[in-house]
Amino acid sequence: MIEFDSVTKVYPDGTTAIEDISFTVEEGTTTVLVGPSGCGKTTTMRLVNRLEEPTDGAVYFDGENTRSVDEIELRRNIGYVIQEIGLFDHMTVGENIATVPELKGWDEARIDDRIDELLELMALPREFRDQYPTELSGGQRQRVGVARALAADPDVLLMDEPFGALDPITRDDLQDEFLAIQDRINTTIIFVTHSINEALKMGDKIAIFDVGEIVQYDTPHEILANP
Ligand code: ADP
Ligand code: ADP
């Protein structure tokens, strides 16, 4: 589904964020990129939706080099959730969720149904669709962020420390709920965290990063057996 082939990223200021990274993400699985701050996880994730371009090597999406895929088209098929979710504060929750479906030209009735479906999926009350993000708690906003990223049934969902800014109890709840809905959404997920506990809990596969490289890439079971 997604393949990194000997990818190196050097930023314009000369920082080498990742060096010669290769790994494959299988369709329908959750792959977690885990490691301390600054080791290249976010850079790796942003290479998938072309918010960054490789300096060397290539990233393939369904067998096609992402360099030759239209960026806008690529991003419509790849949902993106970040820690401090960039919800549009001047738009209601419903309008936020509708953004990508509208870009894709879905008709109003279909978008309307989809908003209700996603609010239900993320355990948010239906009334929230007419409220503004600033009226919600941090955990609720993050649920809306996930709902918005899933709105147009993306093939891939990128999640960069999605629960990182939440208090431990809310984070735990959201992890559990997200695990429970993974089968329903049937999306390939790449998940970034610095928490090995979160990685072991959420991942089908885990890529352990050390400065700029992947030092282990395996199932949680294998990682626990061969630390
Ligand atoms: P992580 O997600 O693991 O915290 P990042 O991918 O954000 O790591 O960063 C990897 C390295 O690249 C770090 O040394 C970071 O400072 C550097 N870096 C990230 N973004 C940029 C940028 N836009 N310009 C220069 N250096 C950057
Ligand atoms: P747990 O695995 O128990 O959830 P974490 O690994 O998330 O614990 O770490 C606990 C707290 O420490 C987090 O809330 C986070 O804010 C902070 N923390 C740990 N490692 C880092 C890091 N590399 N960068 C930033 N914050 C960190």
Automatic annotation (TrEMBL):
It catalyses: tungstate(in) + ATP + H2O = tungstate(out) + ADP + phosphate + H(+). Its EC number is 7.3.2.6. Keywords: ATP-binding, Molybdenum, Nucleotide-binding, Transport. One of its GO terms (molecular function) is ABC-type tungstate transporter activity. GO terms for cellular component: plasma membrane. It comes from the Archaea. It is found in: Cell membrane. Residues 2-227 form the ABC transporter domain. Part of the ABC transporter complex WtpABC involved in molybdate/tungstate import. Responsible for energy coupling to the transport system. The complex is composed of two ATP-binding proteins (WtpC), two transmembrane proteins (WtpB) and a solute-binding protein (WtpA). Belongs to the ABC transporter superfamily. Sulfate/tungstate importer (TC 3.A.1.6) family. This is Molybdate/tungstate import ATP-binding protein WtpC. It comes from Natrinema versiforme JCM 10478.
